[in-house]
């Protein structure tokens, strides 16, 4: 769109004839005709008079113009040149702000991927604890494997008591395993509906956690999006 085309379009929208607009603007009709046919470029003062006569702001008047295509034609009017410079600065500032956002997105993406890959935040090592059975009141926590120490060797019926105790321990055995992401030491006591159980550490196992996989997926997704938008925005910024 040209300056003349925009003048004519707005004049018609206002329902004004060329003689009416030229009278309101304080210019000759022949001069207005030249402006509308792009045969002349108005001075800054005349341009302001025409805008005032049309009762339209500079921003609204220029809203349909292209920053790149129309600048060369219109830049001879100082008010319009200033508007173009302001719009250019605003667009440049917006694009630079977007670049910072995309850089932040890339940093977040790398961080998420590292957290999921390293498994440092959400460990996949589970510690395995084993309980042989429920402890009776007053029994030591190691009764299920050191029960012989509870029998007095100096008594004559030692062997009989050993067999009886062994039978009792075997009948009471009820092995339960407890897996924990938290290391609770070599062992710990836990309440049971029938009393207490002592769990001793037997080792550790690796148990994949879904959250680590999702962190890696989102990390790759955000990284790809961040790089793509960063490259696009950089190219657009160079064209300004």
Cα-based radius of gyration, to the nearest Å: 43 Å
SS class: alpha+beta
**Considering DSSP H and I runs of 4 or more, what fraction of the residues is helical?**
55-70%
**What proportion strand?**
5-15%
The shape is rod-shaped
Per DSSP E runs of 2 or more residues, the count of β-strands stands at 5
Q: Kindly state the mean pLDDT as a whole number?
A: 89
Specify the biggest β-sheet. Answer: 5 strands, antiparallel
Which regions contain 5 or more consecutive residues with pLDDT less than 50? none
Number of helices: 9
User: Secondary-structure element order, as H and E?
Assistant: HHHHHHHEEHEEEH
Task: Describe, in short, the structure shown.
It is built from nine helices and five strands; from the N terminus they run H-H-H-H-H-H-H-E-E-H-E-E-E-H. By secondary structure, it is α+β, with helices and mostly antiparallel strands.
Structure, explained:
The chain has 240 residues and is α+β, with helices and mostly antiparallel strands. The chain folds into 3 domains: 3-64, Orthogonal Bundle (434 Repressor (Amino-terminal Domain)); 67-124 and 208-240; 127-207, no CATH class. It is built from 9 helices and 5 strands. β4 (187-192) and β5 form a beta hairpin. α2 crosses α3 (29-36) and α7 (78-118) packs antiparallel against α9. The mean pLDDT is 89.
